[in-house]
Amino acid sequence: MREKARKQIKGHSLDYYLNLLSEVRENTLKEFKNRDDELLISVDKYFPWGPTNNYCK
Fold it and tell me: What's the half-sphere exposure (Cβ side, CA atoms, 13 Å) at 49?
């Protein structure tokens, strides 16, 4: 799987990568609009380094 992923992602133009990053950013901002600050301050008790809120992660 790793090799297949490397072949798919390598060798594109800079614009390809910038557009991909832009799409991901747009989706991230859209999803954040659907949530409130409670998401950020809620604590994940099972985080590997100990209880940590999502803002810190």
Answer: 5
Contact present, 44 and 52 (Cβ < 8 Å): yes
Question: Cβ neighbours of residue 25 under 8 Å, at least 6 residues apart?
Answer: none
Tokens of 56: 């810190």
Tokens of 53: 């809120």
- Tell me the whole-structure pTM to 2 decimals: 0.61
Q: Which domain holds residue 28?
A: 2-53
Pairing state between β 43-44 and 52-53: antiparallel
Q: What is the mean pLDDT of residues 9-17?
A: 93
Are 48 and 38 within 8 A, CB to CB? Answer: no
Tally of CB atoms within 10 A around 12? 11
The count of structural domains within the chain is: 1
